[in-house]
Design a protein that fits this description.
This protein has one domain. It is 92% helix and 0% strand. It has two helices and no strands.
Amino acid sequence: GQDALMLTVIIAAPLLGTALALGLVIGMFQAATQINEMTLSFIPKLLGLVFVLFLAGHWILGKLIAYSENLIREIPGLIG
């Protein structure tokens, strides 16, 4: 239970951090220039998340596979 929650936080942190940082920078730019265009905030965030997934995707997939293998290995002990 707690391992699954911790894995979720570890996997989501790079993506959420990227979206937060880009959103903050774009929001400050929009406030400074008084440009209120929704696509101006969406497209850079999307590209940033794709870039982070490209860089960290192998690591994220490795974490998920290791957790799944461990979970499947422990099933007999949970049953009886």
